[in-house]
Amino acid sequence: MEQSGTSTRLAGAVQGLTSELVSALRSGDRFRLAGTVAQGQGPGATADPFLAAVRVVGADVVLPSVLSRCPPPDADDLAVFSRAVHAYPPPPEAPPTSVWSHWAMRRALLRLDASLDGAWDDDAEPETAWLDDTPWQFLTHQLAVLAPLALPGEDCAVARAARRRPVDVARGFVRAVRRRDWLQAAGAGRWLAVLDDVPRTLGLDTGLEFVAQMGGEDARVAFQVEATQLMRTGVLV
Predict the structure, then answer these.
(1) Distance CA 189, CA 108 (A)
(2) Between 182-192 and 166-178, two packed helices, what is the crossing angle to 10 degrees?
């Protein structure tokens, strides 16, 4: 029961955090990450579900500062982001998506705070062998989980793997919509927004509008769609 209660609190914290991110993307107002985490048990406690939610949302918690919709985060916001990065490293034998998600957070933090250069002993990219020659269904699922890496101009091994297979990602997007897996569809759609050679017959804009309409009550879906639409209109720093 306790584990179930913890999972419920974390899920609620993720939804709350993502809802505030959606509002920031839409309004362009400053997003205060420190204020959001302060609603929990305290930003220094690893048991704080709001701090754990930062780790779940990953590098996307600073996306409003990457897109030209919000001012850069303040020092206290970066401090909260940094605490989440250090409090929740991927455990041994963690799945590749967890390792990559953590790497993406570290990379985002370094981009926003150059003083952290050299803060990690090994900042090399994780491996991507698990994506080599994988079926398109599995590829789409994994890319959707790693949607925070889908940014214009992003150059990392995961992005390069996606760029090699735009048609497969498009097939995965259609499959996710047909299966009513709105979160996977939204994540795949975000990747398609930054890939070249996407089939013109896909109708991505119409598809994204449908995903937002059907799955938008989930803040995670709404956030991915909003971010994708901003990127497709070229709203970048």
Answers:
(1) 21
(2) 160
Residue 16 has pLDDT above 80, yes or no: yes
Mean pLDDT, all residues of the chain = 87
Dmax (CA) of the chain: 49
Give Cα separations from 15 to 1, 11, 167, 173, 231 (angstroms).
Answer: 21, 6, 31, 23, 22
At residue 69, the pLDDT reads: 57
For residue 84, the one-letter residue type is: A
Gap between the Cα atoms of 144 and 1, Å rounded: 30
Helices (H), the chain: 2-27, 33-37, 49-57, 63-66, 75-87, 96-112, 136-145, 157-163, 166-178, 182-192, 204-215, 219-232
CA–CA dist 216, 224 (Å, integer): 10
Check whether 19 has a pLDDT greater than 50: yes
Whole-angstrom Cα distance, residue 232 to residue 80?
A: 30
CA distance 104 to 152: 15
Q: How far apart are alpha carbons 36 and 207 in whole angstroms?
A: 32
Q: Is the pTM of this model over 0.85?
A: yes
